[in-house]
Amino acid sequence: MATTVMTPIGTLNFPTLFEPRGNKANPSQEPRYSAMLLFDKAACQTSAYKDLQKAIQDCIADKWGEAKAADANFVKGLRSPLRDASEKTYSGFENGEIFLSAWSRGSDAAPGVLDLKGDNIIVPGDVFSGQLARFTVRPFAYDSNGNRGVSLGLEHVQVVKQDCERLDGRQSAAAAFGNGSDEQLAALGISPEQTAPSENLPF
């Protein structure tokens, strides 16, 4: 059984962490939770990244044996969960080096989602692409119908920096409505400073 390992901190992308999502390309596949992490050069030099690489290598050895795991040509033929960011044209990927995708084994395996203090994040809208996060994952090997490699099972997610620029361009509600001071509000005699109900209200 592969060991759970913590990833380096990277940029969160496409988080599906609160409701499992089906695969349009494969409708028979059970809905699952998933997310991507994008790592820059600095993240790829961390001990956490090296630990992740070792866990993947150990998974290969467990599945195909030590000799195969030491064979560079064999390993090169496997699909790795650590992919070159240049494979994708997503926003922000031009500044990255490596990305990974991780997903749950099924719809009954929701990951825990925590903030830096260790408190649960329970509002889906509080987690979005562009935040800094790290995962705990469990590598697993597969060999089916000519496809073989290593994937990462998603266990838990920690968002370590929440106040980041969204990669999808969506504004927060506070930014969308500004400070509430505009011409129409002024004409109606409404201002953000109003804190008490009007005397004309029946309550």
3D architecture notes:
The chain is of the alpha+beta class and 203 residues long. Helix content is 18%, strand content 31%. The chain is built from 5 helices and 8 strands, in the order βββαααβββββαα. The protein has helices spanning 47-64, 66-69, 72-76, 173-177, 183-187; strands at 5-6, 10-21, 32-39, 82-84, 98-103, 112-114, 132-144, 147-161. It has a 5-stranded mixed beta barrel with strand order 2-3-5-8-7. The radius of gyration is 22 Å and the shape is elongated. The mean pLDDT is 87.
Summarize the entry for a quick read.
The chain is of the alpha+beta class and 203 residues long. 18% of the residues lie in helices and 31% in strands.
Structural class: alpha+beta
Total count of helical runs of at least 4 residues: 5
Question: pLDDT under 50 segments (min length 5)?
Answer: none
* Percent of sequence in beta strands: 25-35%
First CA to last CA: what distance?
64 Å
Number of strands: 8
Order of helices and strands: EEEHHHEEEEEHH
Features of the shown structure:
203 residues; 5-stranded mixed beta barrel
